[in-house]
User: What shape does this take?
Amino acid sequence: MSILYTLQDPNTKWVLMGCIMLGISSGVLGCFAFLRGRSLVGDALAHAALPGVCIVYLLTGSKSIGLFLIGAGVAGLLATYSITAISRYSRIKEDTSLAIVLSVFFGIGIVLLTFIQHSASGNQSGLDKFLFGQAASLVHGDVITIMSVASVLLLLTTLLFKEFALLSFDPGFGRGLGYPMGLLDGLLMLMLLMSIVIGLQAVGVVLVAAMLIAPAVTARYWTDKLSRMVFLSGCFGALSGVLGTLISTQQENLPTGPTIVLSATCFFLFSLLFSPRRGILARLYRFVKLRNKVLVEDVMQSLYESLEELASRTRVGGVYLGISEDEIARKSGKSPAQVKRALAELRRRKWVVEREKAEGQAAWTFTSEGMKAAYPFILNQRLWDLYHMTQNQYLHVQIDQSREELAPQLTDEVLAQMLAQLEAYDLTPRLTESTPLYPMTGNNQGGVPL
Amino acid sequence: MNALWIILTGSLVAASCGFLGCFLILRRMAMLGDAISHAILPGIVIAFLLSGSRDIMPMLIGAAVVGLITVLIVQLLSHHGVKTDAAIGVTFTALFSVGVILVSLFTAQVDLDLDCVLYGEIAYVPWDTWQWAGIDMGPRAAWGVGGVFLLSLLVIGLFFKQFKLCSFDPALAAAIGIPVVFFHYLLMTLVSLTTVAAFESVGAILVVAMLVVPSATAYLLTDKLHRMLWISMGVGVLCAVFGYALASWLDSSIAGAMTGVSGLLFLLAFLLSPRHGLVTRAWTRRKIKVSEPA
Assistant: This one.
């Protein structure tokens, strides 16, 4: 109810519009910064903007965003140049030079800010709103400035989308194609700077970097396509802007910056946990599934090979006995509990059955359906083993080792050669669907294997 | 007398930060230090709300816990495929926001000014004194920072070899059986403790300056770790002295002025360091050119 009431206020409507545009533009530009590995550069630029803003105020005495934009822009360019210069011309690493520039510029900004506050005229300047951001302090003119700058930024990004994509993923290739990559990089930096400056008054110097980082990281969880990522990031930015502004209007004395940042962080946390492909839960689910699949396959293989050994020992046409759980566990190297679990799963698929042996211990064997599944699986395993053993004989064959199945990747000729080799190594799977696994008894199945 | 106390406290802050900062910049964790210094804010506020006083002990504990949590979260996020810089950015801004919101919500109970959060109020340090057995022992802040400084001197002194090896060649350190992860977290604990002890004097953000700038200056001046530590502490003290002078001349924030001075000193080292300075190297190159005519 109170939110609806707040929305009636025309001033709040303006502020909201401003924050939405702000969220979109910083979300969109943040994507490129994120992909270029420059997330924290935004932080440094934001801190560096403070002395620029203060100097402009000292010189002109006005608080218009347009003038601040110029001051912060100049300071930001100086900061960017300093960061590159320090890491290029000395042995100081990039991250340290970032921290140096960030803190020194901010320190100078604080000196100027306190200087202004302590001098008689500037007491009511409200410049300290810049530290944490207070969207409510935006006036109509500011919102107009924010919206026009944001629109220009969005327009430029749309026009130069292809070039920025190249810059983000493969600047070397772009240079090869003849694009002026250095110029584009500079332009991107300048646009980042502008989106930071228009965010200063709403989000504040300290936190404005989060508006660049959080939406981009969040969007990365939902897609692998740059255009979609940029779009989503813009949406997340806008949503955080709206949520944060509304929350901060509900409580007196609550700065907007932190609430916007926390809204963005909530979107990020949600994506981190629940994103369908990259989210922690989805990955955990896939991991458990894969582990179970491997376990079942290992147990299946051990059972098959034990039965195979038994068949070769008994030298009769079929295997009428089963393999005990202990034996499978020994052969596969799994714990008895794991073997039990895998066998339960296999029995659920009706691939194995349990028989009572004389000593009272359960013994397992394949059903004919299970054998139908196990034979090609084992053959595939053995073919891979053979391929890895004799790889240099098959160098001329194109094999994708990441695929599970080997046989479909081979020509008939090569397959025949490999099968012959398997036979020579005595690795041909001996048990097939037609191998009798059950004793012929007169009374029940009439000699037909189950 | 008050000026002396302020300079002393400032020097202690700068020296203890500069001391630990050397290890941070050698391990390329300058931005992690930045993150910790922002992120401890909620720890301080919660400790403050729970204990209801400005005692340094609860704050130290709260900050150390949150500092370690920050490092853990950053590592967890990088482990789950978030780029390290983005992970740092998301973590510290979120925690800092929580801190600011807590301060705003509990303004009545919390005697923490948001300005103080950012740039400290070292100027008020001399009035907040520590009474012990009825005797005025001097500013509490100086005692707090001094104590933490002693602690880090002690810890680093005891395990100097291990820290040194972990800073320069963590792989080798791990190979010869040094628990690298343990020393990593130990260092992070010390950084968190120092940050919170310095917090009252120089604020959350300028701590970073004291952590990084003097040690980077020292890094340009020497190739030996123990000399780097000494120089870094010396530069820190210089920052405090000249920073105080600058601040009283301009009537501005002392912590900010200290940072400004540290930037100036860094610039001097950057240009004029005997071996790594920009101007010095250009000069040497010219001399070589002149001395071998074609």
Summary: Chain A has three domains: 3-275, 279-366, 375-435.
